[in-house]
Amino acid sequence: MYKTRVIKATLEIIKENKLEKASIGEIMKKMKSSPGNLYYYFKNKNEIYKEVLHYSSNEITKSLSGVKKSDDIQDYLFELTENLVRFLESREEILNFLISIKGSCYMKEDIVIEKLLSKFKNALIKKEPDEKILLKLCMFLGAINEVLYVNKLKKGRILKKDEIAEISYFFWGKSKHQNRELDRLY
Fold first, then answer.
1. Dihedral through CA 150, CA 116, CA 106, CA 45, nearest 10?
2. Cβ contacts of 161 within 8 Å, gap of 6 or more
3. What is the reported pTM?
4. pLDDT tens digits along 128-166
């Protein structure tokens, strides 16, 4: 319970003031707690960030679990992409955190990235050689973060379904249902 409060307070601070401002002091101030309580659960700020990353990954995984499998892999990948985008649009604190830590030692943990996008990976295994999957997932997550940074965080707008379809098409190819819509765009 206390760990979850620390994680949520950290996410709120990062959303409001960026990663650099998420000091132990700021977290304690937000929680109205003492540092002694925090140090009982976490040795330092890096441990907090790792827990926030695992929490964020679990939240995304739960959201993606709601997507029903489809016989058409591209349809399934589009639904996963749309679900991920909508989740991150609605959970700006997690979006801000993922953007803040990109390129950091926390995102370099291949296991975390694979877990974060495990549904995508499982769908791609049937389609692509395993060694290309992690690279593609990293590029995909980076692109999603950048697109949402500009559109959601800077411009305050959510993506339209056809914009998400275009992202999905770029990374995963056209699905049967997207053929007509994307042919119109290109």
1. 90
2. 82
3. 0.85
4. 666 677 778 888 888 999 999 999 999 999 999 999 999
